[in-house]
Structures are given as structure tokens and as C-alpha cells.
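Title: Comparing notes on inverse folding

I've been comparing how different people in this forum approach sequence design from structure. To keep things fair, I'm posting one structure and asking everyone to reply with a full sequence. Here's the target:
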């Protein structure tokens, strides 16, 4: 067996899956595509497994349990609990049923899962009619803001390992963080943020930040946290895949290796 362990990926193709797989192979790791309907199959007999893919597949197919992998992710209450100086907008935890009664525009999203698209909805009646979702499904409701640019940061132990711009004014626009004209300002903001709040996240996570289009109180520019996500199901965009892989491997690796500080961030349930 390869002493470096192996990376197990879902059968569903994605550009990030391919980039991370190539980076893992360059390190000498085996990359294994999981069976579509049979858990981890023979891979469940091996040790040192890591996972990249969606939560629905991980639990419905039983792959994560078979691999004995621990999935780390931010808690559902993480974003609304942040200090206002880092969010710069009102964010509340609610339910899908309550969100459907909204009579004003709002940004509505699932706290962690992608069970429906996070987006600005003109009112609650415009939310997707997902028949499988209970009215008690948790959601986050926040003020509508405009982002000049949004960046994805792959974070390990409070350090940005790599990053990418992924949108400008709400449109997909990928560009590497390294060499970007907003790089220094973005890292200065996130450095202050991590100094205060790194302990509220797992040691391996993805944090999205952005530059607001309408800064308050005469500020020339204003940065804020957009959201945080699990690294094991996040798109790389233009980030360095090898550095992103460092974060992914920690975020979804052997359960026996999970540090005590990460235990509160373990995901032990499906959708």
C-alpha cells in the first residue's frame, strides 16, 4: 500500500476533481474513483483514505463510513455569529418555511449544504420548490449587498495556503490571488479576521471574502466575509491545486488522525 495514503473521489466529473487528482498523483498518492452505488467497495479495506466529493454521495453511498474518513466543516451557526465588523450586513438563522414568507428581497442560502442555490430572491415566493426539503430546513437570510470582487481562500491552521478570485460584481471571473491587485488588501483583512476568529473554524476550511461595492462611513474600500465552506467539496477556480490539496486532505482524512480541536467540526450525518 502507498504510505502516502490515497484520495477517493466521486464518479461525477468536475474540473476541480481532476486538478486535485493530478496534484495527488504528482505526490505519489493513489487516486481511486469510488463505485457509484456500493459504498467504498474494496477501498474500505485500505487505510489512509481521504475524500473529495459531495455530502449526498458521501453518506447515501456509505463511502465515508466505509473509508473511516472524518469530514470537517464550519458549523451552521458560524456566519451569523461572526462580529459585525467582519460581515458588514445583517445575517440571521431561520427556516425555509419562514423564508418563504418574506415580502422583501433577501439573500437566502442553506448554511452549509447546497440543497438549493444561494441567491438573491425578490421575495419568499421565488425560493425553489424543492419537494424533498422540510419547512424546518435551516437557512440563512441576509441583507442584499453588492460585491466588487469575491475571493476563495484555502486555509490550513489559520494560514492562507492558496486563493482565487472567483467573481466580480456577481459574475464568474476566476483569477489567481497571487499577483492580483487586491491581494495585499485581501490578506491584510483576512489576517485580522483570523487573529480574532480562526478558532471558530476547523483547522482546514475554505473561507470566501469580498470587497463591498458600497463602503460605509466614507471608507474607500470595505472587506467582509462572504461565507465559509468545507474544503472537501469546494471549487478551486484559479487557486493552486497542489496547495489546495493540502487543505482538502486535512478536511477529509482518517478519523483516527483528527485533532482534538477539530472534533466539534466533524460531520457525522447526511443530508
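Reply #1:
Here's my take.
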Amino acid at each position: 500500500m502507498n504510505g502516502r495514503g490515497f484520495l477517493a473521489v466521486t464518479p461525477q466529473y468536475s474540473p476541480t476533481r481532476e486538478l486535485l487528482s493530478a496534484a495527488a498523483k504528482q505526490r505519489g498518492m493513489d487516486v481511486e474513483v469510488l463505485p457509484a452505488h456500493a459504498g467504498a467497495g474494496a477501498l474500505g479495506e485500505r487505510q489512509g483514505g481521504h475524500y473529495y466529493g459531495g455530502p449526498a454521495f458521501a453518506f447515501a453511498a456509505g463511502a465515508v463510513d466505509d473509508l473511516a474518513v472524518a469530514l470537517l466543516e464550519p458549523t451552521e451557526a458560524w456566519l451569523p455569529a461572526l462580529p459585525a465588523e467582519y460581515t458588514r450586513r445583517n445575517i440571521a438563522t431561520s427556516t425555509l418555511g419562514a423564508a418563504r414568507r418574506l415580502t422583501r428581497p433577501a439573500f437566502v442560502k442553506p448554511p452549509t449544504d447546497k440543497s438549493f442555490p444561494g441567491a438573491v430572491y425578490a421575495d419568499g415566493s421565488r425560493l425553489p420548490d424543492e419537494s424533498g426539503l422540510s419547512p424546518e430546513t435551516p437557512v440563512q437570510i441576509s441583507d442584499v449587498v453588492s460585491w466588487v470582487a469575491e475571493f476563495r481562500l484555502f486555509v490550513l491552521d489559520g494560514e492562507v495556503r492558496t486563493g482565487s478570485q472567483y467573481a466580480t460584481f456577481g459574475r464568474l471571473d476566476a483569477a489567481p490571488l497571487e499577483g492580483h491587485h487586491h491581494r495585499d488588501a485581501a490578506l491584510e483583512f483576512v489576517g485580522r479576521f483570523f487573529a480574532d476568529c480562526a478558532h471558530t473554524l476547523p483547522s482546514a476550511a475554505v473561507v470566501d471574502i469580498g470587497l463591498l461595492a458600497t463602503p460605509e462611513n466614507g471608507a474607500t474600500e470595505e472587506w467582509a466575509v462572504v461565507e465559509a465552506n468545507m474544503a472537501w467539496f469546494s471549487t478551486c477556480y484559479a487557486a493552486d491545486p497542489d496547495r489546495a490539496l493540502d487543505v482538502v486532505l486535512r478536511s477529509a482524512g482518517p478519523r483516527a488522525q483528527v485533532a482534538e480541536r477539530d472534533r466539534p467540526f466533524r460531520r457525522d450525518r447526511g443530508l
